[in-house]
User: What shape does this take?
Amino acid sequence: MPRSKRYPWMLKLPDVSLACLDTRHPELAVFAMQRCLAQAHFREAILLTVEGYVSPDPRIIIHPVARLRSMADYSAFIIKNLGVHVGGSHVLVMQWDSFILDPLAWDPAFLDYDYLGATWPHRSPSVGNGGFSLRSRRLLEALQDPDIRDLQPEDYCICELYRELLERLHGIRFAPEELAQRFSFELATPHQATFGFHGLFNFHRALPEADLLTWLDHVPPPLLRSMQARRLVKNLIREGHTAPARKILQVRARGGLKLRLDALKLGSLLAARRLWS
Assistant: This one.
């Protein structure tokens, strides 16, 4: 996949490591990391993936890890093992479906906290999403506390299950909701420019249509048959993006009977909005 365009102004984050753990779709992880590297200079960019994968970008350093078999494996690694792989005072943890949107939205105050992620509108405290999150070295070390044993899902465990322990025993500071809303979005609709985002269903907000069409050409079909991809299709239809919506529906229409019927249903919605061509 081609690299995203470079911006004339580059955010400098010399004490922040960029890290992504992905042993299933390293090529998609590289695309997302390149979107970040096109807009910011980091201390280092680390892709933790399967042994033998060769980085197509010299800026991205490969750290071989055992293949992850489940989300539980991912969570355990992020909580207990991430710290040995990164050298910054902070690490920007990202996934293949997240990246920087607006470097001008960066606020130095982000670094005053040990954990910063998009808000969860259905939970309290609301700051929590880990898919695009900023974490301090102090947090990574505090997570080695032997009393932190339940590890799945990792962002829930950090931000809810063990939050009181982390605050009381280790002095960990979670960012306030207002700052988190300027840092990233996931489930909540953004009402201002944000530094980044998380979620495939938000790609209609994150990529220009031409870039999204290019990206779709490289996505494994099972990802486009997921529930997140269905949500993306509905968002694309609502926003009037005909071509990428149709491309995803074509993939879903080649799935099982349930997916084919659903593709017909969504195709009818597309036609009803006079977008089908």
Notes: The radius of gyration is 19 Å. The first strand starts at residue 11 and ends at 21. Residues 124 and 181 are 14 Å apart (CA to CA).
